[in-house]
C-alpha cells in the first residue's frame, strides 16, 4: 500500500503542475495562478462589464457633445466639432500614459481600478456642469449668442479632462488584462483568447449602442443632467463589479519601464558602434543563464537576425568582465523586446488614416443628421446623437456572424486557425473605409442639392454608417489580435496603447484638416465647412478623406507584405506568440505554430 501511494504522488504533482499557468501570472495571493480556479471565462465577464460601462459613458458624451457645446455653451458647429475631436484625441493618446504606468509600476488591474475612479469623478463634475445654470451661459434662440465665460469653460473642460485621463488609463489595460486570463501555452485557452477579442469588441459596441440610444434618449427627454447622471452611476457600479472578480483574476506583475529598457538598448548599441564593435555571426551575444529573463517574471525571447545594429547592445566586448549595469551591456531578450516594438511601428502608422474617418462618426455625421428628417412614424423623432446606432448595430450583427460562420468557412479554405491573419483582417477594414467615405460624399451632395434638405430622410445616412461600422469590425479586432500577439511579455499594455493612440492621433489630424480647410477655403463664412451645413461643401471634405483612405490602403498593402513578425518571415503573423526559450534545453518548439502569408 505504501509503495502504491509513493507511485501516485508524482502523478498528482504532475497534474497539479499542468494546471498552473506558464505565462508568469499569479493569483491574488501571489501564487502561480491555477487554471482550474482562475482566469478564462470565469474572470473575463467582470472585465467585459467594466468595458461596457466605460464605452456606454464615453459614447453617451461623445455623440452628443457637439450638440451640447452648440446648444448649451453657445459655440459654433466647426468650433464644437474641433473641440470634440481634440478631446477624443487626448483621451486615446493618453492611453500611452496608462500603459506605461500599468507595465512599469501599477499592474493592469490596479491601473484599471484607479483610472475608473478618476473617470467617475470626471463624470460627476460633468453632471454638475449640466445641472447648475451658473456654470453655463444664458440660452438664446438666435445668433450671435453670449459666449461662455472663462470659468464656465474651465469647469467643463476640467471635467472632460478627467474623463479623458480615465479613458487613457482604462483602455490600454482592459483588453490586455482580459487576454492575460488565457494561457498561451494551453491550446484550448489560446482558442478562447481569440474568441475573447471578438466578444470584447462585441461588448464595446453593446456599450456604445446603449450609450447612443438609451442614454441619448434620456438626454433628449429628461435633460442633460439625467443624461450625464445615469452613466455616472453605471460607471460607479462597474468599479464594484470589477472588484468582485478579484478572486478569479490572473495578474501579471509590473516589470519596470519598457521605455527605459528601450533607451538602454539604443545607448549601448550606439556606444559599441563607435567603439567599432561588430554584431556578426561570430559575435557572442549576452543572455542570462536563468530559465526566465532578467525582466522580472518574463520569458526569454530568442534572437532574430533583423535590425542587427541593435545586436551590438548585447555583444560582450570583455568576456571575463562581470557587467551588472544594463547601461553597459543588454541581454538578447532586452534587445529583442525593442526590436518587436520597432517592427509594429510601420503597421501602426499605416492604419492611422482610418481613425480620421472614425472621427467623423461623432462630429460631422451627427451634424448631417441634425439637418435631416429624423421622423420614425408620426410620433417619434430619432435623436441626432442616436444615429450612430446604425454603426454599432452593424458591429453587433457582424461579430457573431464572423465568429460562428465566417471563421470556420475561411479556416477550411486557408488552413489558418483564425480564417485569415490579423494583417489581412485589418486590410479588409481599410479597403471598406474607402467606400464608407465615398458613400458619405454622395449622400451629402444629394442632401445639399435637394430643394428642401430638411425633408431628406436620415436613413440615407445608413450606408455610410453601415460601411464605417464594417470597417471598424475588421480593423479594430484585427488590431487587438495583432498588437497583443506581436508584443512581448513586458510591453502588452504599451502595445495595446499604441493602436488605441491611433484613434487619438486620427482625431487630432481630423482637427488639423478642418483647420487647414477653413484657412484655405474662406473660413466659417465662405469656406467648405460653415456654421450652416446647407451652405457648406461637406461633400468635398468627405471626398478628400476618401482620397486619403485610398492612398493609405496601398501604403498598408506594401507595409503588410514586407512585414516580418516574431517568426521572422515576411508578411506573416503567427496565430500564437512564438514559444520562448525555456527550460534547460533552451530551444524553440515549433509544434502547434501556424504561419500564413498576407495578401
Shape: globular
Residue share in β-strands: under 5%
Helical content stands at 55-70%
Instruction: Give me the Rg, rounded.
Output: 26 Å
Secondary structure class reads mainly alpha
Largest sheet: none
Counting DSSP H or I runs of 4 or more residues, the number of helices is 18
Average pLDDT across residues? 78
Give the topology string: H per helix, E per strand: HHHHHHHHHHHHHHHHHH
Distance between the termini: 63 Å
Can you count the beta strands? 0
Low-confidence regions: 1-12, 569-599
Short characterization:
This protein has helices spanning 2-18, 40-71, 77-93, 95-106, 108-131, 150-179, 187-222, 224-244, 258-274, 332-349, 352-358, 364-370, 389-414, 422-449, 462-485, 492-521, 523-526, 538-562. It has 599 residues and is mostly helical.
Task: Outline the structure in words.
Mean pLDDT is 78; it is low at 1-12 and 569-599. By secondary structure, the protein is mainly alpha-helical. α7 runs antiparallel to α8, α7 runs antiparallel to α15 (462-485) and α11 (352-358) runs antiparallel to α18 (538-562). The longest helix is centred in the middle third of the chain and has 36 residues, at 187-222. Helix content is 63%, strand content 0%.
Amino acid at each position: 500500500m505504501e509503495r502504491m501511494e509513493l507511485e501516485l504522488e508524482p502523478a498528482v504533482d504532475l497534474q497539479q503542475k499542468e494546471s498552473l499557468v506558464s505565462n508568469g501570472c499569479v493569483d491574488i495571493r501571489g501564487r502561480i495562478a491555477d487554471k482550474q480556479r482562475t482566469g478564462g471565462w470565469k474572470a473575463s465577464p467582470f472585465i467585459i462589464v467594466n468595458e461596457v460601462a466605460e464605452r456606454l459613458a464615453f459614447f453617451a458624451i461623445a455623440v452628443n457633445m457637439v450638440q451640447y457645446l452648440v446648444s448649451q455653451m453657445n459655440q459654433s458647429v466647426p468650433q464644437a466639432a474641433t473641440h470634440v475631436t481634440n478631446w477624443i484625441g487626448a483621451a486615446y493618446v493618453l492611453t500611452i500614459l496608462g500603459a506605461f504606468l500599468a507595465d512599469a509600476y501599477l499592474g493592469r488591474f490596479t491601473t484599471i481600478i484607479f483610472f475608473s475612479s478618476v473617470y467617475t469623478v470626471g463624470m460627476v463634475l460633468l453632471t454638475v456642469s449640466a445641472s447648475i445654470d451658473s456654470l453655463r451661459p444664458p440660452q438664446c434662440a438666435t445668433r450671435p449668442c453670449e459666449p461662455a465665460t472663462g470659468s464656465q469653460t474651465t469647469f467643463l473642460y476640467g471635467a472632460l479632462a478627467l474623463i479623458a485621463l480615465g479613458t487613457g488609463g482604462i483602455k490600454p489595460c482592459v483588453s490586455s488584462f482580459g487576454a492575460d486570463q488565457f494561457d498561451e501555452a494551453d491550446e484550448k485557452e489560446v482558442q478562447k483568447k481569440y474568441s475573447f477579442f471578438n466578444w470584447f469588441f462585441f461588448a464595446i459596441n453593446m456599450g456604445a449602442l446603449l450609450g447612443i440610444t438609451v442614454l441619448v434618449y434620456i438626454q433628449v427627454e429628461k435633460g442633460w443632467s439625467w443624461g450625464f447622471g445615469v452613466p455616472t452611476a453605471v460607471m460607479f457600479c462597474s468599479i464594484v463589479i470589477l472588484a468582485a472578480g478579484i478572486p478569479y483574476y490572473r495578474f501579471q506583475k509590473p516589470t519596470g519601464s519598457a521605455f527605459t529598457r528601450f533607451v538602454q538598448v539604443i545607448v549601448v548599441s550606439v556606444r559599441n558602434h563607435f567603439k567599432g564593435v561588430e554584431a556578426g555571426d561570430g559575435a557572442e551575444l549576452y543572455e542570462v543563464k536563468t530559465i526566465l529573463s532578467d525582466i522580472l517574471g518574463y520569458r526569454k525571447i530568442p534572437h532574430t537576425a533583423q535590425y542587427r545594429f541593435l545586436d551590438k547592445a548585447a555583444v560582450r566586448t570583455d568576456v571575463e568582465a562581470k557587467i551588472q549595469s544594463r547601461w553597459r551591456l543588454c541581454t538578447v531578450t532586452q534587445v529583442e523586446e525593442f526590436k518587436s516594438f520597432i517592427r509594429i511601428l510601420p503597421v501602426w502608422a499605416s492604419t492611422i488614416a482610418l481613425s480620421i474617418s472614425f472621427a467623423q462618426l461623432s462630429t460631422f455625421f451627427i451634424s448631417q443628421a441634425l439637418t435631416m428628417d429624423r421622423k420614425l412614424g408620426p410620433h417619434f423623432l430619432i435623436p441626432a446623437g442616436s444615429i450612430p446606432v446604425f454603426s454599432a448595430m452593424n458591429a453587433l450583427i457582424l461579430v457573431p456572424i464572423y465568429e460562428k460562420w465566417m471563421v470556420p468557412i475561411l479556416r477550411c479554405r486557408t488552413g489558418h486557425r483564425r480564417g485569415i491573419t490579423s494583417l489581412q483582417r485589418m486590410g479588409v477594414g481599410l479597403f471598406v473605409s474607402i467606400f464608407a467615405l465615398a458613400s458619405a460624399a454622395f449622400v451629402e451632395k444629394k442632401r445639399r442639392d435637394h430643394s428642401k434638405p430638411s425633408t431628406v430622410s436620415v436613413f440615407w445616412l445608413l450606408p455610410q454608417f453601415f460601411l464605417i461600422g464594417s470597417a471598424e469590425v475588421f480593423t479594430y479586432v484585427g488590431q487587438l489580435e495583432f498588437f497583443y500577439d506581436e508584443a512581448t511579455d513586458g510591453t502588452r499594455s504599451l502595445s495595446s496603447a499604441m493602436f488605441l493612440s491611433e484613434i487619438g492621433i486620427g482625431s487630432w489630424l481630423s482637427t488639423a484638416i478642418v483647420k487647414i480647410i477653413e484657412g484655405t477655403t474662406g473660413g466659417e463664412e465662405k469656406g467648405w465647412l460653415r456654421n450652416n451645413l446647407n451652405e457648406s461643401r461637406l461633400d468635398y471634405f468627405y471626398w478628400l478623406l476618401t482620397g486619403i483612405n485610398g492612398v493609405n490602403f496601398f501604403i498598408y498593402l506594401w507595409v503588410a507584405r514586407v512585414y516580418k513578425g516574431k517568426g521572422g518571415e515576411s508578411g506573416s503573423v503567427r496565430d500564437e506568440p512564438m514559444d520562448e526559450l525555456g527550460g534547460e534545453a533552451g530551444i524553440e518548439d515549433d509544434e502547434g505554430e501556424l504561419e500564413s502569408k498576407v495578401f
